[in-house]
């Protein structure tokens, strides 16, 4: 069974989906079913149950919002993808809060050639576990914020929060 919890945040509700203590999806949506629909058919076959508390994952979100910007790093995550995509997602988790990288830099950190920037962009676009796999920390080298699955204002808020520009009680 996939367990889901909805957590209020200053930028809207965050849906967390967990299987046996490992996050399989997270995203800024008020309906956990939106995240559930993005899971593999095998995971969807397990069913979805909304719960009051996912424990460590929900505690990490509250700590992150309170200023412990590394709290999300300790939560185990699992998402599907090719070996290349998995390397890119692992490299994303190593980008520290308060810093950003370009798509080319992300590819390089994953041990891929700089020409793999397009693959890095695809890995960000297909990321199922935001902000735990922090694709919001990747910016285009041409400037600006680029896109974000949950909208650029959410990306801007996350980056401002991590740079100390926003405090949340």
UniProtKB/TrEMBL annotation:
Keywords: DNA damage, DNA repair, Methyltransferase, Transferase
Gene Ontology MF terms in the entry: methylated-DNA-[protein]-cysteine S-methyltransferase activity
SUPFAM superfamilies registered for this protein in UniProt: Methylated DNA-protein cysteine methyltransferase, C-terminal domain (SSF46767)
Reactions accelerated catalytically: a 4-O-methyl-thymidine in DNA + L-cysteinyl-[protein] = a thymidine in DNA + S-methyl-L-cysteinyl-[protein]; a 6-O-methyl-2'-deoxyguanosine in DNA + L-cysteinyl-[protein] = S-methyl-L-cysteinyl-[protein] + a 2'-deoxyguanosine in DNA
Coiled-coil regions listed in the entry: none
Pfam family, one: DNA_binding_1
Any one of the GO BP annotations: methylation
InterPro entries according to UniProt: MethylDNA_cys_MeTrfase_AS (IPR001497), MethylDNA_cys_MeTrfase_DNA-bd (IPR014048), MethylDNA_cys_MeTrfase_DNAb (IPR036217), WH-like_DNA-bd_sf (IPR036388)
PROSITE patterns: MGMT
Domain (Methylated-DNA-[protein]-cysteine S-methyltransferase DNA binding) ranges: 84-163
Keyword Metal-binding listed: no
PANTHER family in the cross-refs: METHYLATED-DNA--PROTEIN-CYSTEINE METHYLTRANSFERASE
The name this protein goes by in its record: Methylated-DNA-[protein]-cysteine S-methyltransferase
Taxonomic source organism: Nonomuraea polychroma
